[in-house]
Amino acid sequence: MNIIFILIPIAILFVVIAVFVFFWAIRSEQFEDLDRQGSNILFDEDATSTTTSKRPSDDHQP
Questions:
Q1: What is the DSSP string of 11-52?
Q2: pLDDT tens-digit profile of 9-62?
Q3: C or N terminus of the chain, fewer CB within 10 Å?
Q4: Global pTM?
Q5: Quick check: 45 and 51 in contact, CB under 8 A?
């Protein structure tokens, strides 16, 4: 029964920390643009440099 007196304040502390982190994330606009990061993986950043640097003469085999 004595362990309940220890576990309840610890659980309340965890809830307070979770609520604080949640409201911090909302205030710092962490949830504003959820679609951009998911679509960034579809685009290649080096698309222009790989198409311009590769020439047909570079593909010859010995």
A1: HHHHHHHHHHHHHHHHHTTTTS-HHHHHHHTTS-TTHHHHHH
A2: 999 999 999 999 999 988 888 777 767 767 777 877 775 555 555 555 655 665
A3: C
A4: 0.51
A5: no
Query: In which residue are the tokens 């290649």 written?
Result: 44
- Encoded amino acid at 59, one letter: D
- Cα dihedral angle (44, 45, 49, 52), rounded to 10 degrees? 40
Find out whether 27 and 33 touch, Cβ atoms under 8 Å: no
The residue assigned the tokens 């020439």 is 55
Tens digit of each residue's pLDDT (9 = 90 or more) over 30-42: 777 767 767 777 8
